[in-house]
Design goal:
By secondary structure, the chain is an alpha+beta fold. The chain has helices spanning 2-15, 17-25, 28-33, 64-79; strands at residues 36-41, 44-50, 84-95, 104-114, 118-127, 130-145.
Amino acid sequence: MKLTKQLDEQEIHETHYEKIRETLKNEPYANHLGIKLTELGKGTASAEMHIEEHMLNAHGTVHGAVMFAIADYVFAAASNSYGKVSVGLSTNMNFMAPGRKGAVLTATATEEKKTRRIAWYRITVESEGNLLATMEATVYRKDQYFVPIGEE
């Protein structure tokens, strides 16, 4: 029975991929920050953003909130990649190295485990091949879909 549910969600992802991608790509806050969705798979997502002067902290490095924002964005994209409304329950962010002005941040989210109601994700934030931060995140999966689902 579980396998059927997973296959159905994979089918929803494939059938409604363009609508799902378009919805996630047009997230207002991510667009405001200049975050660009670069990849979207079943339970995975990647994005990038160019670091500008206003994204720096008092020490001249990328503000932690900026790194959190791109990590949170790929978390949202990956967890909503099945067209099912999913909302964050918790995150834990670890900062390991500073980002610099003019660099490109790349974030990638990978689904580690998914049940009917809860899913867990591992997220990395990198720049120029260096790991800057990691995030572990948990999402609550609602019953609603944001793509049209027929009687199944």
